[in-house]
User: Which sequence fits this backbone?
């Protein structure tokens, strides 16, 4: 039995506790939160768990194998470092850390101590992303042309991070998982309207190997909720609409046919428009699959797809965004 | 009676002829096209018109008051200049010209000769844009926060221009018309996949006075057709979906309420979410209204909203886009 | 403190337990189910509750004030009767009973014993239905013309009832609540394809006072999920789309204008098409509101809108449907 | 060259003239309308055609081979009869005639005189209906379960017919074309609100051989425009949404799996939910294909799928609807 200590029982923590608790080989032993109201809610639902407002009692407990860190990003580094130093595996909220340097230090530390880090890139475990991964790996789309993502809605909180650090980790981790191509440059622009100088809308361009552009539209001030990703390919094109109840993924047999008749100045370009196919998407709760996968990684010693290195790659892009914002939108090399 | 000569009878020319012809005070006297097939189609439909493959015979004709130039942008300057020099008003396809210098020369020439230039920014005459103009002018949205436009679909032709010069003139002219705020900088990035180095996807950011960002997503390689514009405001927010059959414009009583309790570090930010209102949109054909308006401007001497200066403002943004593309996405000051 | 005993812990029972449990003045004291797996699930989540597979121990318990009956309709009458005879209020799943006679007997019994019956017409407590009620009561729609409901999806279970008894109670109870007009006749037709002669698709027409037709399309064999209700009125028209994430209710300023120029044979009929308005819908969980309302009714003695009489009115329509099905679709007078 | 005379140049007539005119083997020689304004519009567009307000001059003309009758249904019988008697083929608007007896007389007359009748069931020539026909004929859906059609919008004119005779001919002709099963009974109910006793909403059930139900919802008083048809089958299910710009037809690999374990009382019924497929739809104008097909039928002597017999089958259902309306919704045997 693998015992979990969970630090942070705010919005997302209860889902973590519920999901790790329902796995046969796992059990949540203790919950920590500085907010006494949150602790009270945890107590009512799980009276037999240990409850504490002191994270040290979790990190120091010899009964705990894994520490789940479900707290604001500014606290990640310190908590994760102490937990790793005390020999605990860690499951940590996204984004992994507040800086690249922190992420590098933590991944090194984990490797030295032979401990697992899983960064909670939950989206990788949704039926939609797993299906898109399968489609791309099967070369259904052919050579990729572009990746275009829009993640907008009304959703400004009193935050310590801007909209990029809040929303883009989802999309950065998804793109990192789906595509072989690697980011080589990042440019970002944005604007702050109401939140102490923290951007509430932003547009990000990521330049990838293979001459591919990825673009990300993130916005806390949109009247409509959009969760849309387009992936253009030479053979087919894919549209993922995550707010649609059905048919989240549509694969279009559409594209451009180029006939190079007599040299480059004589291209004949024509449309191709065929059937559309919407594959069935598995509906299993993503966090359930992620939790089971983490247990499996701990037991087998296998490195998860969303390990510290994956978390680091996302933080590198996030940090580059901030530097680009401060440099008038200049491209920051990675 | 105002007599028109129309140069260019390809895709859009027939609509121009039909619309000017049905106005009581106007009549199309001659049509010119170098393509004899196009000329044949014109002859069949309008046997009594003069047909020619030599534009000079239109520009030199003493019977013609207005020359409509419905040809590729690379030919605009020469045709317009000759027409103006011969004392003709001009109605000219968008984008106005291929360079800022050309647009400036033409507007000066027209003013010197007291002639009208109307640039065919048809969208300004749609029911949707006229309604949005009314909504913004009535201060329904309050202080504007951002302008976010997406105009994408599968639509690559063998073009002499990139996707920005093809699609963005629509959006630049609409934004120019709707908003008081003026562009001060432009940044663009894009990629060419199949078309001889001409970008087929591009992302443009326009920095406006008043700390407003406008963003434009234009793409010839999208499997889905999207024509969507979001305008965020302090009081309300507007979404314009031009591919929707009904309810193209939705005004959301949504936003953010900021309470500054004790200094800037103590902002209390909360959502506001209320009713949505979809105003009725007038369905009159935009080109019909534009044509009538042009006749009215010629007769009254009034300057149209889409005059040479409006055309010039759009070309300035387009030219800045190209320069930004060549400068690795750097912001080009206007 | 009002103590509940809940009989039936299958699909819906857990929601009942959770919602009554979270009300301050109420508490669930015991849960009963014949299925031991279900009972096990209840025990794990609520270890301190009494668990039993014998409903008698709930109905006979002197600690219990209210019995919630969340079981198949065929068992409702017997369970409710015994509970009422033992002096318990009842909260009972829809449809109220399997026959009109049973419903009449139970409502009489409850009145004689001065006990409350609440039939679980949950939909009446949704934000959407409460908003429509407000709109109709405010005479926004004017004189009503028709009520047209479609409730279809893929959803056949091994049932003891046909699709009408499964799905139409929702719509019958909603219509009964929203409209003053009373049903005077019912006709139904349907077909069974896979389920032992129990209809899996059916179409129902209810004739109401005031020459209004209501129509209900219920279907377990539809590939798409539709939850749509149209209410046509003289002044405005309303569309309720319950599967839409936003804008569930749209009120259209559309209609017909009739000018009676010179007698009935000279009607001049024209369209009227104006703005559309989508009011904000309260998102509170319907069952939470219903549970609180029930507690309030018990404490105050007030009769709920969804009391035994409301349940009886729905069962009358359901019974008439079955008789019409057996009479080749003939209209059954109510 | 086949010469057409067209009687009726109102809403639909211009489309008929345009489409027959553009066929190489056909030409419209004369147009007739009693409305002088309509005649004036025809003259302006086609100055070389003969124009007349006397239909006799068309029916008696020895230069005319085919008479197209694009007039209200009440005039169909007389005009068609005279045209056939004068040896003309006829192309006639739907519904074919006002009574079954008229349709029978006309089809007999045409056969006796070896003339063609084509009833303008335009929908049969749309890309959508042709694709559905192909899908059903290829047994993609398996045994059919039901046919469910909704055709509603705001659209009341000052009519001589009720909503059934206006809208249902579309759906009756489509169903008649798509399905092998034959109607054996019809029941209809409806209501008139504003139009002199002519029903403006109606619901129709058609009982078909093979225990299939078809249902039709037609409504002139709906705030939303719906053109939706569901066809349920044992193997797959089809949804046709004709107001959707793309993906009008969706084929769902969804259904019910029935396992009959031990006799009829032990059915095990489970869902099946798989991928969805949206085939590409041909966009050619339906009327163009229909016109070409008619010319082909005249030249080859082949009987069209939409001949007088097809028109008669639709009128039989329409007449039965009216009788059912007068009989309180009773099923009328066919």
Assistant:
């Amino acid at each position: 039995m693998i015992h979990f200590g969970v630090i942070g029982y705010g919005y997302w923590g209860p889902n973590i506790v519920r999901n790790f608790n329902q796995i046969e080989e796992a059990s949540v032993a203790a919950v920590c939160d500085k907010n006494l109201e949150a602790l009270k809610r945890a107590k009512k639902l799980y009276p037999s768990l240990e409850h504490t407002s002191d994270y040290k009692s979790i990190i120091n407990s010899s009964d705990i194998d894994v520490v789940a860190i479900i707290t604001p990003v500014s606290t990640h580094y310190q908590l994760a470092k102490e937990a790793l130093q005390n020999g605990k595996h860690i499951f940590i909220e996204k984004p992994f850390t507040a800086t690249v340097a922190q992420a590098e230090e933590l991944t090194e530390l984990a490797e030295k101590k032979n401990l697992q880090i899983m960064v909670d890139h939950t989206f990788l475990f949704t039926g939609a992303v797993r299906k898109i991964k399968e489609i791309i790996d099967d070369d259904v789309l052919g050579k990729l042309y572009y990746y275009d993502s829009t993640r907008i809605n009304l959703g400004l909180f009193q935050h310590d991070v801007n909209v990029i650090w809040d929303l883009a980790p989802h999309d950065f981790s998804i793109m990192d998982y789906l595509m072989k191509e690697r980011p080589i440059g990042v440019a970002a622009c944005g604007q702050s309207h109401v939140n102490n100088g923290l951007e509430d809308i932003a547009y990000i361009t990521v330049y990838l190997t293979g001459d591919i552009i990825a673009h990300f539209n993130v916005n806390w001030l949109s009247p409509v909720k959009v969760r849309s990703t387009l992936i253009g390919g030479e053979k087919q094109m894919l549209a993922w609409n995550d707010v649609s109840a059905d048919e989240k993924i549509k694969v279009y047999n559409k594209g451009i046919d180029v006939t190079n008749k007599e040299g480059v100045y004589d291209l004949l370009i024509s449309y191709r428009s065929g059937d559309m196919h919407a594959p069935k998407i598995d509906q299993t709760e993503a966090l359930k699959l992620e939790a089971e996968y983490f247990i499996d990684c701990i037991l087998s010693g296998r490195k998860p797809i969303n390990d510290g290195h994956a978390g680091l790659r996302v933080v590198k892009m996030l940090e580059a965004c901030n530097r680009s914002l401060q440099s008038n939108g200049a491209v920051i090399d990675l």
Observations:
- Chain C has a mean pLDDT of 93.
- The CA atoms of residues 70 and 202 of chain C lie 25 Å apart.
- The radius of gyration of chain C is 22 Å.
